[in-house]
Design a protein that fits this description.
Oligomer: single chain
Strand order of the largest sheet: 1-2
Order of helices and strands: HHHHEHHE
Amino acid sequence: MSAAKSEKDLHLPLSRVKTIMKSSPDVDAVGPEPLYLVTKVTAMFVTDLAKRAYKNTKGNMLEYKHIAEVVQEDDTLDFLREIVPRKITVREYKELMSRKAARGDRSDESSEESSETESSDESSSGVEIIE
């Protein structure tokens, strides 16, 4: 495989992918074949994610919220949930916090159940607050 041909086939820069791969403490060196494969597969993954998110759009514009929705709904993408959280407004955040505080006012037994449910909901959905 020639280096010139392989770089033409890629949409991501090899040097950046190599830097990311080498940032892992477990990686000492990165050969050209694994670098090419990881770069190609990463580009394919990003393309697939974008295509799936585009299906959720109503117009012709792909937005962050569409990608975040795909990440939050697909269990195979759970490794991205903290990196690509849903965005909520400050108002929605305040409502969420007031509901959480109201649940805390109940008896100990019911508040423990609701706080467990709430914490599992929050951790699985991922949220980023926007103004």
